[in-house]
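Internal tracking record. Fields below are filled automatically when a chain is submitted to the structure queue. Please do not edit lines marked as system-generated. If the sequence contains nonstandard residues, flag them in the REMARKS field before resubmitting.
Queue: standard
Priority: normal
Entity type: single polypeptide chain
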Amino acid sequence: MEPSEVTSEQDPLLPNEPCAASMATPPRSLGKNKSCHILNRDSHNMIFHCYTYWRNREPEHSVADTSKFVTDMLGVSERTVFRVREEVKASHFSGGKLTTTSRKRPRNADKRRCSTKFDSFTLCALRSCVHDFFRRNEIPTVEKITTEFQSVWNSHH
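SYSTEM-GENERATED OUTPUT FOLLOWS
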């Protein structure tokens, strides 16, 4: 066999239909879903598609057996598989897509509030005051910045 040739082993139990679980290489485990870890939408879709694939392929197995099989195959809990199934049912009746909870925090919310308190001129003057400390090789503290900024601000107004 030459190094340029690629071989893959076909699982005799699986038909030639595409499924995330029937790749030539072992599927990457989604990992145990520890508490406070949120699965992304792709993981939800993979869980649901694997569940429906095995449910349609082997309808003689019960829902619990299929869920257990998907649990062992993907490395998630049975509760996660059940929760994904319930979300799909709910989204199907509401006509929406399968969604996940948002992991993003409004990190810029405080910054936006700060910028609405002061106009751009004041922020630029404050930034310049802080930069002056670094030019003088001094460590800027809140007290130093406050006193210097107030003295500069009062002298110009």
